[in-house]
Amino acid sequence: MSAYPQDAVTRKLAVVSAGLSTPSSTRLLADRLAEATAARLSDEGIGTDTTVIELRDHAMAIAGNLVNGFATEELEAVIESLTGADGAIFSTPIFTTSYSGLFKSFIDVIERGALAGLPVIIGATGGTERHSLALDYAIRPLFTYHHATVVPTGVYAATGDWGSSGDGAGAGLPERIGRAAGELAELMRGSARSHQVRDPFALPPGFSPAGTH
Q1: What is the CATH code for 10-195?
Q2: Residue 186: partners with Cβ closer than 8 Å, 6 or more residues away
């Protein structure tokens, strides 16, 4: 949560990490992107109310939702914190040249249209730089399908991007993080999403359960 007073200008940021281990480079990348975004907004006098969503903590609920079509109250709250945010950061490990199954399963339980217009940074981690293309051929199209507004700069962090000293990041990664954060902050600055009332589980217009037999 932000330390800014309630009457200050704030924006809500949802941070979704699909990392499976502890500690996780996927979570570390998400945190770095969130910190950089909050810093950019702070420079403009805007506070950040950040919610971190660790998907591994909700894996059973996500699987249950896929099977029976119903979300638990906890999962509903997670989805609402995402769909009601002014911006979001998604970070996934790359498995077999694409996003993880847990990451895709979470996206699959979100109603189409609930992410429409949501400013998003896409991030990914993997062992080698060769997998960086997954950002554009796998992850970006996924959010385009949901009509989210994905910032131009995707951030991929290979094992070699993380150093053992200093700030923990190899040359080039801080610049990519800073560029993506600036793009997201710019979109969040003018966002009013967190002040809108929406139901991510609402039925499509014209659908009437009472009228069906």
Answers
A1: 3.40.50.360
A2: none
pLDDT digits (tens, 9 = 90+) for 50-68: 999 999 999 999 999 999 9
Reported as a single tens digit per residue, the pLDDT across 111-164 is: 989 999 999 999 999 988 878 889 999 999 999 999 999 999 999 999 888 764
Parse the chain into domains and list their residue ranges: 10-195
Token pair in block for residue 90: 């998604």
176 is written with which tokens? 């990519």
Q: What is the DSSP letter of 22?
A: S
Q: Do the strands 87-95 and 98-99 form a parallel or antiparallel pair, or are they unpaired?
A: antiparallel
Whether the CB-CB separation of 95 and 128 falls below 8 Å is answered with no
DSSP secondary structure, 76-103, as one string? HHHHHHHHTSSEEEEEEEEETTEE-HHH
- Which token pair is 188? 């969040």
**Cα 143 from Cα 121, distance rounded (Å):** 10
Q: Which residue has the tokens 């907004």?
A: 41
Residue 125, helix vs strand vs coil: strand
Beta-strand ranges (E) seen in 10-55 are: 10-17, 47-54
